[in-house]
Amino acid sequence: MKRQAIRIGTIGYVAALVAAVPAMAQEAQPTAPGQEQPQAQPQPPALSLSAADLFLFADRARDAGDLATAETAYRALSTNPDIELRTEARFRLAMMLADRQHKYREAAVQLRAILDEKPRASRVRLELARMQALMGNLGSAERELRAAEAAGLPPDVQRMVRFYANALGAAKSFGGSIEVSLAPDSNINRATRSDTLGTVIGDFTLDPNARAKSGVGLDLRGQAWLRHGIDKRSSLMVRLSGSADLYRDHAFDDYVLGLQAGPEYASGRDRISLSAGPAWRWYGTDPYTFTFGVNGAWQHPMGGKTQLRLDGGAARVNNLRNDLQDAVLWTASAALDRAFSARSGGGVQAFASREAARDPGYATASGGANVYAFRELGKTTAVLSAGYSHLEADARLFLYPRRRVEDRFTASLAGTFRALQVAGFAPVVRLRWERNRSTIEIYDYHRVAGELGLTAAF
Predict the structure, then answer these.
(1) Which of 29, 31, 32, 430 is deepest in the core (most CB within 10 A)?
(2) Predicted model pTM
(3) Which of the pair, 70 or 454, is modelled with greater confidence?
(4) What residues have CB less than 8 Å from 334, skipping those under 6 apart?
(5) Through-space distance between the first and last CA atoms of the chain, rounded to whole angstroms
(6) Element (DSSP H or E) covering residue 87
(7) How many CA atoms, within 13 angstroms, populate the side-chain half-sphere of residue 106?
(8) 111: how many CB neighbours lie within 10 A of its CB?
(9) What is the pLDDT of residues 311-350, one digit of tens each?
(10) What is the CA radius of gyration of the chain?
């Protein structure tokens, strides 16, 4: 380790304070009238420690259980201009926060700060994967493992990767998350901009609430989950999730609440999960749909850098406003995610769905694909995504002159700015574009929306 001197200033270590106490006490003694002023005593030299000495001091404090003093010393070292010194300090601090204090989120922030400067630090990325798993973020943990593989690993580290990958099933037994963001939107109700609606009996004038509305909303997303281990390979997962899009005009508010429960099973590095449960949706202030569904997923690593995921589900949808839209919904998707390097990756997803509604005019079949790519640029992560889907109805609704056929295009660009992180959270900015081309005028729309919120800084 480099013998770089570090001056003790405001961090207030015991050794520096003890050295300063005699001089401070002497200065504080009052002088009687007529008494000669004592000669000024020479000031002791400022106490300096080399980086190696300060690391030794911090390690001894940590081992003695004085974690507050150790943390202060590590944080002082983490501001050192030498990248190797501050990397070592951040890593030791992260390990202490995680293993001694169980502060996994704070540890993850320190590990991410290292990777922002040294993205090919494989051991650091593996520890970040471990923190993600301990917080219950299994998808994020697996993404870090793929990035570690893409960076290139020596054989002994590869064994550690396999160990962590196989241990992901023993993750945290409960947890939750919440996201809050402001969302300006040019079309909050995804409606046409046309003033009229063409029908087989002529054009109708649309109510203003049926036309496109712009506004700024508050987006809330959250979930809470509980995992109960059954044996070494299987567990029971219960998840409660919800979302809310809130606007000044509550007629456009959109709420969703869902509950899912079912078993998860690990076979080697594969994971299989089944779940079932209800979901409720309100639009405006009134109930809109009630759904009960079952879902299954299979997750399979294809080498160290790529992961395959297959999903399928079936649900019964009860439309509380129009019985003709009651339906059985079938869904299926396949997704590939790959790490290109330690700092970049991407993926592709193909999907299909069948909504067998009571009225053939509302029954639809659809399919499409999404692609995404991300790149870490210093302390910023940029994500670009695009998608296309095609939808066709079984029959023409009596009122409309044509059968419903649609092509929908989407694109988004997002950035997470970890340089501005506070208390483990960083600002995220997203820009979304959407265009839906439809043979039915009321479904034909375009939309541009933004989002400014907070997300985890790791």
Answers:
(1) 430
(2) 0.74
(3) 70
(4) 308, 309, 310, 311, 349, 350, 351
(5) 28
(6) helix 83-99
(7) 15
(8) 29
(9) 999 999 999 999 999 999 999 999 999 999 888 999 999 9
(10) 29
pLDDT tens figures, 425-453: 888 999 999 999 999 988 999 999 999 98
Contact 285/254 with Cβ under 8 angstroms?
no
Identify residue 179 by its one-letter amino acid code: E
Distance CA 15, CA 250 (A): 62
Task: Calculate the dihedral angle through the C-alpha atoms of 73, 78, 79, 81, rounding to the nearest 10 degrees.
Answer: 120
> Tokens at residue 272, please?
């299989």
* Residues 6 or more apart in contact with residue 65 via CB below 8 angstroms: none
Q: Which three-class secondary structure string do you get for 128-185?
A: HHHHHHHCCCHHHHHHHHHHHHHHCCCHHHHHHHHHHHHHHHHCCCEEEEEEEEEEEE
The alpha carbon of 66 is separated from its chain's Cα centroid by a whole number of angstroms, namely 33
Helix (H) or strand (E) holding 64: none
List the structure tokens of 163: 């160990």
Secondary element (H or E) of residue 221: strand 215-229
The domains of the chain, with CATH numbers, are 5-32+39-170 (1.25.40.10), 178-276+338-347+358-456 (no CATH)
Q: Which two tokens stand for residue 357?
A: 């509604």
Query: Distances from the Cα of 397 to the Cαs of 126, 324, 330, 361, 444, in angstroms?
Result: 56, 11, 22, 5, 16
Check if the beta carbon of residue 375 is closer than 8 Å to that of residue 381.
Answer: yes
CA distance 433 to 186: 10
